[in-house]
Amino acid sequence: MLGPVCVVVDGRQVPVGGPKPRTLLALLATRPGRVVSAEHLIDAIWGEDPPDTARALVHTYVSAIRKAVDAEVISRDAGGYRLDAEEVDLTAFRREADAGARAVPDQAVDHFRAALRHWRGPALGGAQGSWAENERARLEELRLGVLEDLAEAGLTTGQGADLIGELTEAVAQHPLRERLRAQLMRALHQAGRQADALACYQEGHRALVEELGVDPGPLLRQAHGEVLAEPLAPPVPEPAPVTPPGQLPFDIADFTGRASEVAALSRRLVDTSGYRLCALSGKPGSGKSTLALHVAHRVRAHFPDGQLYASLRGVQTVRSDPAEVLVGFLRALGAADAAIPVELDERAQLYRTLLADRRVLIVLDDASDERQIRPLLPGAPTCAVLVTSRERLGALGGAHQLDLHVFDDAEALQLLDRVVGGGRARREAEDAQEIVRLCGHLPLALRIAGARLAARVQWPLARLADRLKVQHRVLQELMIGDLEVRGSLALSFDELGELERTALRRLGLLDVSSFGGWIVAPLLGCDAYTADEVVERLVDAQLLDPVGARYKLHDLTRAFARERGEAEETGFPAVANRVARCLLALVEAAGARMPRADFDWVETSVSFLDRAKIDEILDDPEEWFDAEQTELVGFVERISELDLTEAASKLAAALSSSRFAVRNLFSQWYRTHNAALEAARRVGDKLAEARLLAGLGWLRFEQDRLDEAASYYEQALELSDGVRFQALTRLSLSTVHREQGRLAEARTALDLSLAGLRTLDEPKALAQAIHGLGRVLCEQGDLDEAVRYCTDAVAHYRELGNARDLAIAMRSVGIVHRAAGRLDEADRWCSDAVTLLARLDNKLASAYAVQSLAKVRVRQGRGAEVREALVEALETCNEMQDGFGQALVLRTLGELELAEGDLAEARRRLEHALRWWDALALTVWRARTLRDLAAVLDASGESGEEQWGEALAIFRRYGNREAREPRLPVTLTL
User: Fold this and answer.
1) How far is CA 123 from the centre of its chain?
2) Calpha distance 482→687 (Å, rounded)
3) How far apart are CA 76 and CA 920, in angstroms?
4) Which residues contact 243 (CB under 8 A, 6 or more apart)?
5) Do 343 and 364 meet the contact criterion of CB atoms below 8 Å apart?
6) Which pLDDT belongs to residue 971?
């Protein structure tokens, strides 16, 4: 009541809402224990124009206050409400004032002072309306009356000097109040300040004449006469010297690390040539307060006039009021209670006056913002200030800003070892390193972990490390005594706005550690601008760390966010599905801008990401994929856990069609597909299961694990009978069969695929099937039909504008011409393929095209021209983990060495290729290499009969054209 309207429970202030609930509470508090009618409450809150829902709103306000207080502090009775508080400051004020009025002067002073101490500022702060204004004026009149009674009792007992400060302030606020001015004159006179007392009278006389047109009344004239008539009081002796304040809390004995930060802060605080204000910021648990106190103790000798310290409780529900902090500082600097002004500005002025020319260090710990700090800053350059805050105090002009990060490995291990003691961390170094990692190098977490181990000497470090690995228990493990990581994070979390809290919870549920800020838009269902603002506020609160253009969640912050999300969020799968749609659009858009993208992207916008935002995010699609790769895999696994099978399967497929295929990221490919496949099987989604099995078939094909690839494709075909799915899957299966040398089965799969595709609008897949048929016909030796189909495929790809597949089909035309002995035609087609793929910057496809051209050049007697390009092609296939490509290029290098007469090198290359074909279980390709090796052996004077015989048997078994070709001393066909 006597200040901002508030409720205090067990010494803790609890929020009671805005102006209307405060007005309701204030009215009830003026009549504690008495029923106030609903009509009276409505009139006080809304005046003459209440809303139709006023009664319901009153009930809502009452319920909210009860909930905040967690007690039936307001009861309903007889058509109204009654406040049943244990104590109301207005009641206590009146009780002390009444006691003072009944007491003798000496005792009256104490009672009146006790009454006035209940005042914390203007009454009914936060309440509104005409009732509040009238009541505020009435209460102020009561306060002034008690102040005047205090002054009268104090003057009676000769304490006038002690009253000057508060009377001066009161007269300044109420210059026409004659009793106050008369009392100030008498107080000045008692203090021996006759001239000041007379000046005070003249000021009052002038104010009364100018403002009211009247002369001073009897009280003022009587005081004036007393000052003129009575001799001066004896001078007041100087007060005893004040002991310099030493308010710094203790400095911990095992302070560790931060050498550069300690040096920088110490240097800045003792440097008298500049403005000595240092602002230290950092995430919860990073050790800001510990560092600040360590530095303060280190430099305290440079401040012989004292050290002031205040915890500003910046992230607590009830923050320290700078006006109250100033009261403590002023007392420590020697100011008497009576001399401490009521208003914040006047207290700050007195504070700066007392610090003038003194060398004092001020430590302001855990500040909320710049407004809380500014009244506490000294004006004197002889003083220094060290501030800590979770948020960076960027608006604190002239401050030296220092952002505190988590420990590096060495500092973290050193702290853990010192807290654990006994050298245990050094002896169990590997487990200590694991604890450091699981604590995210956060000093608070490390201190708690170390303290737990110190308290459990029988525990090996590995035991705590294992317990910390259980994500849903990690915050429970990081608690000891009054230290806990969860509590530290909760203080920052509770200070956030609702949007920021929701975003953090959902980021935790998404289980991402690093992400682009755009992801908050679909998480919250808001526009990109709002998402950016939310992200920046989380950064300001030290709950997100900016890392380049991305943001990172500390591991323990993520665990906290997920814990809160699981407790407070509902309907998260729908939110995750929203994010998945945006990610799918980005993956497809990025893939379409990169080589070897096996899908066509329709350039559209998606909810929360318009076309311009997508362009901004994907300014460099390669860089975007590199940054997002780990999180994309984790996201697919996360939405698979949520059984979002459609989203998971589509996103996994899009990834394998773009980045994973381009870079042969086989492990990530398998993880995404396997996670989504398990989810599909769990919920019985047969279509998604079929789609994912086909994706795994493609993966195994890219890994040259052809038997597994065929098995996956065949399983997929059994699960879906859709015409499109059957046609596309059989097309993929035909490629596997062709590489296995199972040409008849490949031909059957292609015929079935083509029959379906000719009924569908799938021009790209149709072109691929025509191309595939041409390649099978080439293998079977029907070269005229093969060149017709491959050339037809070239025309289809050119019409589609698909440059990559066009180049690959051109290579196939060249291969057919080479098989037919038309080397000039083969050279032209293969050269054009090499040129086009080089322009597309597709390294792996280029390596295959170079190999095909090299085969032609070797037959033309120009093998030396392509040796260097072949070696580069081999390196590319090795780099891209392409076993088939490595074997193919090794065989071609063997043919080149054979043509140039280096039989030993030819044999080495071909035998290396044979080992690859055996590892890949590719029998037909083994046979082709055996045929070449037979030629090398024949040319070396050894017999290649055995190798040729095995090769011929394989060719005949699989129906390859080589079965009908004659054995030559040097055979170079495919």
Assistant:
1) 43
2) 54
3) 84
4) none
5) no
6) 43
pLDDT at 4 over 90: no
Look-up: residue for tokens 């017709």?
A: 788
For 362, the enclosing helix (H) or strand (E) is strand 361-367
- 884 pLDDT higher than 80: yes
Q: How far is CA 609 from CA 580, 606, 626, in A?
A: 12, 5, 21
pLDDT of residue 677 exceeding 80: yes
Q: Are strands 479-480 and 545-547 parallel, antiparallel or unpaired?
A: unpaired
What would the pLDDT profile of 377-428 be if each residue is shown by its tens digit? 998 889 999 999 988 888 887 888 998 888 999 999 999 998 888 889 899 9
8 Å CB contact between 541 and 488: no
Q: HEC profile for 18-55?
A: CHHHHHHHHHHHCCCCCEEEHHHHHHHHHCCCCCCCHH
246 pairs with which residues across the strands?
307
User: Of 667, 638, 664, whose CA–CA distance to 651 is shortest?
Assistant: 638
In tens, the pLDDT along 811-859 reads 999 999 999 999 999 999 999 999 999 988 888 999 999 999 999 999 9
What SS3 class is residue 596? coil
Rounded to 5°, angle at Cα 676 from 672 and 677: 115
Widest Cα–Cα separation across the chain = 144
CB 215 within 8 A of CB 209: yes
Q: What is the pTM of this model?
A: 0.59
8 in helix, strand or coil?
A: strand
- Distance spanning both ends of the chain, measured CA to CA: 96
- Overall average pLDDT of the 143-167 stretch: 87
Q: What are phi and psi of 32, to 5 degrees?
A: -60, 135
Q: What is the pLDDT of residues 578-634, one digit of tens each?
A: 999 988 888 888 777 765 444 444 444 566 777 777 888 888 877 888 788 888 888
Assess contact for 848 and 888: CB atoms under 8 A: yes
